[in-house]
Design goal:
single chain, alpha/beta, Elongation Factor Tu (Ef-tu), domain 3, Rossmann fold, 2 domains, five-stranded antiparallel sheet
Length: about 290
């Protein structure tokens, strides 16, 4: 069992879990992910490692409660409880080379997993520009953590309530204008955000790496559910990624595949919600869900 040592809620749907797993914390690298099961009968879900500490023996996961399993995690994962299974680290670590100047871009939930990469680049001596985007100031998290590893930090909000008003692509444009010598951009967030980040850097010929999180089952390349098209070739995100050249990713195909099981996901959430309501009212859940 993998005990939860700390929890922090960033919003009504986004929360952080710090999980005790010393061996994983020692092995983890920026860009890798884990597959988690809440209980023995639970779904296997991939979650990017948002932080890790060898000293504390912990990994940090930031979760957005949007589907059945993540809603269940939001309700049941409290300090002192434990996850049933945590498998990892999985995926290829991000390549942190000898870049002199990089921009690390995170949007929404993608803010958390880009932090280890910003830290790793800083530790290698790079000049790091952090660009993080949120809908409004109330949803901002980890500002201090990013400030501690970034030479410059650009905060973007949709409504202009903090930082600059606009999307992370506006932050990228601002950074390139001041720093035309940026050698690499790392972008993590929703697929449509990463697509537009790649579009923003393409005219400047800046290498742009993105971290993909498609539908995944086993995490070993056996199921084929996480296949993506990169440069016209089929890749498996779980073993070939999750980092890929953003200028080569077929984002339209990726987004189409992500939408393929929306109906089933909605039905699973509705069944769980009905059963949860029955439990709260002291009734027996219907056998069919």
């Amino acid at each position: 069992m993998y005990k939860i040592l700390a929890r922090e809620d960033f919003s009504d749907v986004t929360f952080l879990l710090e999980v005790h797993y010393p061996m994983l914390a020692k092995a983890a690298k920026p860009g890798q992910f884990v597959i988690v099961m809440v209980h023995a009968d639970g779904e296997r879900i991939p979650l990017t490692i948002a932080d890790f500490s060898i000293e504390r023996g912990t990994i940090t996961l930031v979760v957005q409660a949007v589907g059945k399993t993540t809603r269940e995690m939001q309700q049941t994962c409290k300090v002192g409880t434990a996850l049933y299974a945590v498998v990892g680290p999985m995926g290829m670590p991000s390549h942190v080379g000898e870049r002199k100047k990089v921009a690390c871009v995170g949007g929404g939930l993608g803010v958390a997993p880009v932090y280890p990469q910003a830290r790793a680049f800083k530790q290698r001596g790079a000049y790091v520009i952090g660009i993080i985007g949120f809908r409004n100031k109330d949803l901002i998290f980890w500002e201090d953590k990013f400030a501690s590893v970034c030479d410059e930090l650009i905060i973007c909000t949709d409504d202009g309530s903090a930082g600059i008003k606009g999307l992370v692509t506006d932050g990228i444009a601002k950074a390139i204008e001041v720093h035309p010598d940026i050698e690499e951009v790392i972008a993590i967030g929703p697929p449509v955000m990463m697509k537009f980040c790649a579009d923003a850097t393409r005219p400047h010929d800046i290498k742009t790496m993105v971290s993909l999180n498609p539908i995944m089952v086993d995490g070993t390349g056996m199921c084929g559910g996480c296949r993506v098209s990169v440069g016209g070739e089929m890749k498996f995100c779980c073993v070939d990624g999750p980092d890929f050249d953003g200028h080569q990713v077929d984002f339209d195909e990726l987004m189409s595949r992500l939408a393929r099981f929306k109906g089933e996901e909605r039905e699973a959430l509705e069944r769980w919600t009905r059963n949860e309501n029955c439990r709260l009212m002291g009734e027996e859940p219907h056998p069919s869900g």
